[in-house]
Amino acid sequence: MAQLEKLAALGRMAAGVAHEVNNPLAAILNYTEVLLRRSDTRPESLPTLLKIDAEVRRIRELLTDLLGFTRDVARSAGPVELPSLAMETLHLAAPEFKRRRVQAQLLADPDLPPALGEAQGLKQVLLNLLLNAAQAIDDRGGHVWLGVEEAGGRLFVEAADDGPGVPPELAGRIFEPFFTTKPEGQGTGLGLFTSAEIVARHGGRLRYEPRPGGGALFRFDLPRA
Ligand SMILES: Nc1ncnc2c1ncn2[C@@H]1O[C@H](COP(=O)(O)OP(=O)(O)OP(=O)(O)O)[C@@H](O)[C@H]1O
Ligand SMILES: [Mg+2]
Question: Whole-angstrom Cα distance, residue 52 to residue 70?
């Protein structure tokens, strides 16, 4: 579990860094292009500018390859049985739940049609949501519900808890990279950012809303296989 958490944290860290590095890279490419187009740029500077352009593009490609930062899941996507994926993830999070006296429940019809997606990525999303819920509940004890249902030809996954929920004034920021309310060294603030990115790659959207009755509720949709 500890090893898995470390790996997941490393992945989230890398994805966040890639996101932050991509913006300045895009700016450098823009400025280089401006200089390349300007008529008063000295001709002897052109080869240097072209080299800058090529090297920056190389970094960008490297990041893309390294992190699979592409909005296209078509290549690796396949049918995913969400109830059993949810079950596996609950097992992974079980030690954390036990430590914090959290009771977890899965609400899913086993006959649901499969979703179209990348099992590994979706598992990471579920694990992020479950660990967030457990961490929010702290060690006061509480409940976590994981639900899967079908509506209007799409699959909906819900992760809810009866912890403190997100303070309304912070709710608009929780999907930002590096946004965390956890003490230093305990959260990188990349869990939700990365999860939203993975869901978006599937053509879905991850949202937060306060849970009726108290706590947090995260919900996302996926296409059917
Ligand atoms: N279930 C929840 N209940 C209450 N607050 C939550 C919940 N899930 C997320 N949050 C809030 O959103 C913030 C961002 O969550 P996110 O998963 O992105 O980062 P993190 O958990 O702080 O760090 P990590 O990168 O380790 O996941 C949290 O710090 C917390 O304040
Ligand atoms: Mg988190």
Answer: 24
